[in-house]
Design a protein that fits this description.
Chain B: It holds the Pfam family RAD51D_N. Chain B: It is found in: Nucleus. Chain B: One of its GO terms (biological process) is double-strand break repair via homologous recombination. The complex is a heterodimer. Chain A is α/β, with parallel strands linked by helices. Chain A has a nine-stranded mixed beta sheet with strand order 6-5-7-8-4-11-12-13-14, with helices on both faces. In chain A, strands 2-3 form a two-stranded antiparallel sheet. Chain A has a two-stranded antiparallel sheet with strand order 9-10. In chain A, helix 11 packs parallel to helix 13. Chain A is globular and about 75 Å long. Chain A starts with 12 loop residues before the first helix and ends in a 26-residue tail after the last strand. Chain B is built from 14 helices and twelve strands. An eight-stranded mixed beta sheet of chain B has the order 5-4-6-7-3-10-11-12, with helices on both faces. The relative contact order of chain B is 0.12. The chains are: A alpha/beta, B alpha/beta.
Chain lengths: 359, 333
């Protein structure tokens, strides 16, 4: 398009300055220019001149560009969304609130105080994403990026075994029984790719490599980052730098999820205390702008001895709060009412870390 | 300014350009700013030819004066007001989004910015039967939700599908692609002519403009500001020249007194003509679907007007069991 300007193209600032001082402002100015001419006129190197011409001229033949910006109607999008499906959480009330589970192709943030079950939910999802299609699952694989070192493989085994047993109990027809033969704990374990990142540099690097990894493993339907907060809360002194890094990070994750066969992206975040006019409350960490990053936000919290999960932000469903519990099998519906819940040590405050059900 | 080249205007021959280039005059700007008499001597070209070229170039690049009366006539014939589909927001906006203007919604996470955008998109596509361009930069678009809003308006499936087809969705995740999308829209509108019958875009929604810009601003980066202003210019041109209502969303930050203010800083705050702040209604305990909208900037209504509205006016929420097998799994515990 002849309306493209030099300023608005993704070129290095120094190249842009050279072009503009030489009098080239729009793509129209560059239509009849040969690379060599451009080198001389603007004082660019041969490679730079080639790049400039490629960038500003590629629009008439938008093979590559069309792939980047696909113009869909909302109807196409609706069909796309219907084929994507979602990952069940094994907590039916939460599934109802979310309209079937954690949606594939979107970013979901899970916030909560320590010990409330963020990692547990992530492990549960990493198993659930592998449930065979004939059981209503996705038959996918999961990438688990662990930044806190909180991933415990024994726990994964426990949750996986429970899921296999659960499916075995449900198997009715021939197809489901057939699928069960390959749906084993070993199979589930080999379908979870763990990546341990120690600091935010590693995390950023991992994010840049993830698209290639996903291309090599097209079955991956879930990417978990547990947690976003840990590397960014401890190592970065410059707060505005952190905010910028995080916003860039958020855009990359959204792009990853929104791709053609993009996975569900699940991030966990810690809580921080915010003091405002004589009262304090717990809010998600990493600042207010990060709050815009994920399209859905779940907050896990305690109320007395009962755990609750709240849908706080969603572009498709209403806010709601439902109870859940963590058992040896994993993330489940709350079976007992609050009053009959076995009372725990009175010392445990409402936000303190408390022992999980033993497994 | 534009580089001097042959064919730019009659009388600007190759020889003349070459001669001028010797005298370090390369662009229209250089030529217009230099003294013709002096230049004619320096480059030994004809003074007459130079003045003629200069006059034509000036005429080409100048703005054309329009009388106020003509402007008013045009305003009356071309401006339309698009309802947002939310009564109380319309009240704040003096009955809706005006074409030819940029309106901004700002608010924290989960305050209903995207929902308001959905409402506008559905209303324009369904009630007004006009095309909408929805630029999604943060992955928030959800066609299922658009369908839900449509289902509240009409039970006719064909109408719902038609309305959805009138909403063009562009998923853009960086500012360069956003700019090229906007430039493409401008180019295609130019080709079609701004008075297309039912086919031209009436509303452009960018949700959110801060998502692609905020990480490029601040620190030692100079480029972000320039890119931000280019986005602003493109949006303004689209709004004004093609008579389109532009709706953008923005995040909020807090100033030193812990007061909410719109994101992207002072410079951006001049861009939208009207600005609305969305907030959750503070209720201890249960979260509700009620939000407040406050008018922060407007040329029609007094500022700091406040209205309350409900994001999901329909109390019942249908749960759609999409997978037969899922239900069975859920019965466990």
């Amino acid at each position: 398009m002849m309306l493209r300007t030099v300023c608005s193209s993704p070129l290095a600032p120094s190249v842009k300055v050279k072009l503009i001082t030489a009098g080239f402002h729009t793509a129209a100015d560059l239509t009849d220019v040969q690379p060599l001419q451009l080198c001389k006129a603007a004082g660019l190197s041969q490679e730079e001149a080639d790049e400039v011409l490629r960038t500003l001229r590629d629009d008439p033949s938008p093979v590559q560009r069309r792939a980047a910006v696909q113009c869909l109607t909302a109807l196409d999008l609706l069909h796309q969304e219907e084929t994507r499906g979602s990952i069940v959480t094994f907590c039916s009330e939460l599934d109802t609130v979310l309209g079937g589970g954690i949606p594939v192709g979107r970013t979901t943030e899970i916030c909560g105080a320590p010990g409330v079950g963020k990692t547990q939910l992530c492990v549960q999802l990493a198993v659930d994403v592998q449930i065979p299609v004939c059981f209503g699952g996705l038959g996918g694989e999961a990438v688990f990026v662990d930044t806190e070192g909180g991933f415990v493989v024994e726990r994964l085994v426990g949750v996986a075994r429970a899921a296999v047993e659960h499916c075995a109990a449900l198997a009715e027809d021939q197809e489901q029984r057939g699928a069960l033969e390959s749906f084993t704990v070993e199979k589930i374990l080999s379908g979870v790719f763990l990546m341990r990142c120690h600091d935010y540099v590693e995390l950023l690097a991992e994010l840049h490599l993830l698209p290639d990894f996903l291309k090599k493993h097209p079955q991956v339907r879930l990417v978990v980052i547990d947690s976003m907060a840990f590397p960014f809360r401890h190592e970065l002194e410059d707060l505005s730098q952190r905010t910028r890094l995080l916003s860039g990070f958020a855009q990359k994750l959204t792009r990853l999820a929104s791709a053609q066969h993009g996975p569900a992206v699940v991030l966990t975040n810690q809580m921080t205390t915010k003091v405002s006019s004589s009262q304090s409350r717990l809010v998600p960490a990493l600042g207010e702008i990060w709050g815009h990053a994920a399209t859905q936000k779940l907050i896990l919290h305690w109320e007395g001895a009962q755990r609750f999960v709240s849908l706080y932000k969603s572009s498709s469903h209403k806010d709601a709060t439902v109870p859940y519990q963590l058992t040896a099998e994993g993330f489940r519906d709350a079976t007992v009412s609050v009053s009959s819940f076995p009372s725990r040590s009175p010392a445990a405050g409402s936000h303190s870390k408390r022992p999980r059900t033993e497994h | 300014m534009v580089l001097l080249r042959e064919g730019l205007c009659p009388g600007l021959s190759e020889d003349l350009i070459k001669a001028l280039r010797e005298g370090d005059v390369r662009t229209v700007e250089d030529l217009v700013l230099s003294d013709p008499e002096h230049l004619a001597q320096k480059c030994s070209v004809s003074y007459k030819a130079l003045v003629a070229v200069r006059r034509v170039l000036l005429a080409q690049h100048t703005a054309f004066p329009v009388s106020g009366a003509d402007l008013y006539d045009e305003l009356l014939s071309s401006t339309s007001i698009l309802s947002t589909g939310i009564g109380s927001v319309d009240k704040l906006l003096d009955s809706g989004l005006y074409t030819g203007e940029i309106t901004e919604l700002c608010g924290g996470p989960g305050t209903g910015k995207t929902q308001t955008c959905f409402s506008v998109a559905v209303h324009v596509a369904h009630e007004l039967k006009q095309k909408v361009m929805y630029v999604d930069t943060n992955g928030g678009i959800c066609a299922n939700r658009l369908l839900q809003i449509l289902q509240q308006k009409t039970a006719n499936t064909a109408e719902q599908m038609n309305a959805l087809q009138r909403i063009d969705v562009l998923r853009v995740f960086d500012v360069f692609t956003l700019l090229s999308c906007l430039q493409n829209l401008r180019a295609s509108s130019l080709q079609r002519g701004s008075v297309g019958v039912g086919g031209s875009v009436k509303a452009v929604i960018v949700d959110s403009v801060s998502a692609v810009l905020s990480h490029m601003l601040g620190g030692k980066q100079n480029e972000g500001m320039s890119l931000m202003m280019q986005v602003a210019t493109e949006l303004k041109i689209i709004a004004k020249d093609f008579n389109v209502a532009v709706l953008v969303t923005n995040h909020v930050t807090r100033d030193r007194n812990n007061q909410l203010k719109a994101g992207l800083g002072q410079t951006w705050s001049h861009v939208p003509r009207t600005r609305i702040l969305l907030q959750r209604t503070e209720q201890p305990g249960a979260s509700s679907s009620f939000r407040t909208a406050t008018l922060l900037k407007s040329s029609r209504r007094p500022c700091y007007l406040m209205e309350e509205f409900d994001l999901s006016p329909q109390p019942q929420e249908e749960s759609r069991p999409r997978f037969a097998g899922k239900r069975k799994l859920d019965t466990d515990s």
